[in-house]
């Protein structure tokens, strides 16, 4: 992973959502925390071009998120806070295959790669299931498989354990830990980021802590008053 923010800021109208930021990310496991409205989701969406910088620039593995926006989308996959909203097809296997069909791959290769992703995530039994019948944890895993089937090197997850029960949270957390891809996890679930290599804390649009999880989480508790 090689992500570079250079004097990057984001404004929405008169509101400065992210203050000027210069930063290099190279670790394989990175967490991002902060109170609601702190700027953490804006920061994460800058990485794959879902949000464009108002000033400055962002580069992902040598690609500019504005000039090379299509290539950046292929390089960095994004799982939204409500992953069911990005499941397009009615059947699980069809949804995972969707991105490959858009690339014009042969049917046999699509089938093989889809089956391989289902097996990798331990959800082969869900292949013929309707997406609206999935549990919250299963939906998260299918969304991950649907994004990763096209081969992005980086996966960004926005609140991946949001509203999951303990069993589903554990299933999703273990899956994220086992991913081969570099990951950036945005979360309020502090337990999910205790083992990351680097943890960032945003507050009121500013990066106020950046380092080991233990120290960054301590600073978060100070800011949150708990």
UniProtKB/TrEMBL annotation:
Domain ABC transporter: 3-226
InterPro entries hit by this protein: AAA+_ATPase, ABC_transporter-like_ATP-bd, ABC_transpr_CbiO/EcfA_su, ECF_ABC_transporter_ATP-bd, P-loop_NTPase
EC number: 3.6.3.-
Domain of life assignment: Bacteria
ATP-binding recorded as keyword: yes
MF terms (GO), sorted A to Z: ATP binding; hydrolase activity
Keywords assigned by UniProt, alphabetized: ATP-binding, Hydrolase, Nucleotide-binding, Transport
UniProt-listed PANTHER family: ENERGY-COUPLING FACTOR TRANSPORTER ATP-BINDING PROTEIN ECFA1 (PTHR43553:SF24), HEAVY METAL TRANSPORTER (PTHR43553)
Protein family (similarity comment): Belongs to the ABC transporter superfamily.
Name recorded for this polypeptide: Biotin transport system ATP-binding protein
Lineage: Bacteria, Pseudomonadati, Pseudomonadota, Alphaproteobacteria, Hyphomicrobiales
């Amino acid at each position: 992973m090689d992500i570079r923010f250079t004097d990057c800021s984001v404004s929405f109208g008169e509101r400065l959502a992210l203050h000027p930021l210069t930063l290099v990310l190279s670790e394989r496991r990175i967490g991002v925390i902060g109170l609601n409205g702190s700027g953490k989701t804006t920061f994460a969406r800058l990485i794959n071009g879902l949000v464009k910088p108002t000033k400055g620039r962002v580069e992902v593995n040598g690609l500019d998120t504005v000039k090379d926006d299509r290539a950046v989308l292929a390089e960095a996959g994004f799982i939204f806070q409500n992953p069911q909203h990005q499941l397009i097809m009615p059947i699980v296997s069809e949804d995972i295959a969707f991105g490959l069909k858009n690339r014009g791959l042969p049917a046999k290769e699509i089938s093989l790669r889809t089956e391989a992703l289902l097996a990798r995530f331990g959800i082969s039994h869900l292949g013929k299931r309707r997406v609206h019948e999935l549990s919250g944890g299963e939906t998260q895993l299918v969304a991950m498989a649907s994004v990763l089937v096209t081969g992005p090197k980086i996966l960004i997850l926005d609140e991946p354990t949001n509203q999951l029960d303990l069993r589903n949270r554990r299933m999703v957390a273990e899956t994220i830990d086992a991913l081969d891809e570099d990951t950036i996890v945005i979360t309020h679930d502090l337990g999910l980021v205790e083992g990351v290599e680097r943890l960032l804390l945003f507050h009121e649009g500013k990066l106020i802590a950046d380092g080991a999880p233990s120290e960054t989480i301590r600073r978060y508790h100070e800011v949150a008053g708990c």
